[in-house]
Design a protein that fits this description.
Helices cover about 65% and strands about 0% of the residues. It is mostly helical.
Length: about 70
């Protein structure tokens, strides 16, 4: 991808990479959305594990519940 878009590829629309994409965003914006979604998902899983652990006092259940939800 770097060879096709060169160093300024972050400003190219994402439609250049994915032809049928309906979103009007750039590659940099898509990357930042992916990073933000991963961070929020990680915080959700950690919070769920801590809440289940605090309520049940069972470490196996605290590890299994977020995994089953995700």
């Amino acid at each position: 991808m770097l060879a096709a878009l060169e160093a300024g590829g972050a400003d190219c629309p994402i439609q250049f990479q994915f032809r049928r994409c309906i979103y009007n965003i750039t590659n940099l914006q898509a990357y930042l959305l992916i990073i933000a979604g991963g961070y929020i998902g990680t915080l959700f899983a950690a919070t769920t594990a801590m809440l289940v652990s605090a309520k049940t006092h069972n470490t196996a259940l605290a590890a299994a519940v977020p995994f089953l939800i995700l």
